[in-house]
Amino acid sequence: MAQPQASDGAQTGKPPLRIGMVGYAFMGAAHSQGWRTAGRVFDLPMSPDMAVICGRDADAVRAAADRHGWAEAETDWRALVERDDIDLVDICTPGDSHAEIALAALAAGKHVLCEKPLANSVEEAEAMTRAAEEAQARGQLAMVGFNYRRVPATALARRMVAEGRIGRLRHVRVAYLQDWLVDPQFPLTWRLRREHAGSGSLGDLGAHIVDLAQYLAGEQLAGVSALTETFVRERPLPTAPSAGLAAVSAAGTGQVTVDDAALFTGRFTSGALASFEATRYATGRKNALRIELNGERGSLAFDLERLNELEYHDGTEPGTHAGFRRILVTEPDHPYLEAWWPPGHGLGYEHTFVHQARDLVHAVAEGRGPEPSFADGLQVQRVLAAVEESAEKNSVYTPIAA
User: pTM value?
Assistant: First the structure.
């Protein structure tokens, strides 16, 4: 076993923020990148110390620790949570374990970062939010990981909306499109089982776009009307099926119990209208997220595939030369850019997790509530639940008369 590494705090003289992370797959790798890099780019008030990474498979989690730079590996998250040498628990597991781990970590006196969606149900999210609010009174902080808030271009868009650059909001339209489920032979992973994932594209992708829309608009959704669909309802079991995949046919397949796509409209508290699309069946689209906001004085648009750019239309300019213009969001006075490269040298997806770590370290050091909070995560969870309820009520297809 590799020997524990000296903490960055010991090297820099800054107080360490000792992190224990539960989960080591896709999000675990992304969060590791954030913790490993933030203190090397930004001048942080505390030094992130990648103390322990946790997972059930001892060999796999040890390999992940070595690959990503964690000092120790652990196989029992309960033991990690109870350790006295951990200040913050970072939860990167499937949604069915978020509530249990977060509640235990808060009860043990730790700060918590939890991946989105916050939970698998409104009831779980409410319990987590109550615990977080009680913990904050004791000096413990809790944040949910909506990393797309940390794209410099979306952070700039939020600033411009708050400054009134597009005036009163009229419309928000947003789509998040992927295609990794198009092949009907793709195996029945945990993301396709309600008991593990909570929902399908709705929670996986829809949670991101609901949060991003509310963040950019600066207000919450008040109601929704929705449709959802599951296109492939039975899939092959994985080669090594995990415990809990019990509903299996004789052919070695199991039932898909989540949505593949969700379409819904909504209305913000101000009366502005919104439309949302989340799907994992958009053939040819790998990770395509686009959002546009139209106001009485202008519009803003962001496309994740052009991550360093923001489109802006100033509706107060004369029509003879008005139009959308590209803002290249790489200037040092743009959000997060003061510590990165010279103007024009773009950032990528992984930098959102560096910025997430930066913001959380500052919040912990300054003793202020981080954003997005568990309460923000609960609000998103309530929207997702309303979408599912609306989709169930709209399940009767009404044909259009010829």
Answer: 0.93
User: Exposed, middle or buried, 6 (CB in 10 Å: 0-12/13-18/19+)?
Assistant: exposed
- Greatest alpha-carbon span in the chain: 76
- Can you tell me whether residue 204 is helix, strand or coil? helix
**pLDDT value of residue 17:** 98
How big is the chain, counted in residues?
402
The predicted pLDDT at position 243 comes to 40
Q: Among the residues of 108-221, which ranges form H helices? A: 122-136, 152-162, 194-197, 201, 207-217
The amino acid at 399: P
Strand partners, 262: 228, 278
pLDDT digits 0-9 by tens, 299-337: 999 999 999 999 999 999 998 999 999 999 999 999 999
Q: What is the mean pLDDT of the chain?
A: 93
- DSSP assignment letter at 42: S
The separation between CA 318 and the C-alpha centre of its own chain, rounded to angstroms, equals 39
Q: Encoding tokens for residue 293?
A: 């906001």
Which pLDDT score is estimated for 3?
A: 39
Angstrom distance (rounded) from CA 257 to CA 96: 14
Q: Report which secondary-structure segment, H or E, holds 64.
A: helix 58-68
Strand order in the sheet with 288-295: 221-229, 261-268, 273-279, 169-177, 288-295, 298-303, 309-314, 325-328
**pLDDT surpasses 50 at 8:** yes
**Ordered strands of the 111-115 beta sheet:** 72-74, 47-54, 16-22, 88-91, 111-115, 142-145
How far, in Å, CA of 372 to CA of 377, rounded?
7
Task: Compute the C-alpha angle 30/36/42, nearest 5°.
Answer: 110
Cβ contacts of residue 59 below 8 Å, gap of 6+?
none
Q: Which helix (H) or strand (E) holds 363?
A: helix 351-366
Distance CA 86, CA 16 (A): 10
Beta carbons within 8 Å of 79's beta carbon, 6+ residues apart: none
What is the model's pLDDT at position 244? Answer: 42
Tokens 């790489």 correspond to: 330
* Nearest partner of 366 among 180, 158, 111, judged by Cα: 111
Shortest CA distance to 131 belongs to which of 122, 119, 140, 121?
Answer: 140
Query: How far is the C-alpha of 253 from the C-alpha of 275, rounded, in Å?
Result: 35
Q: From CA 336, how far away is CA 209, in angstroms rounded?
A: 21
- Which of helix, strand or coil describes residue 150? helix
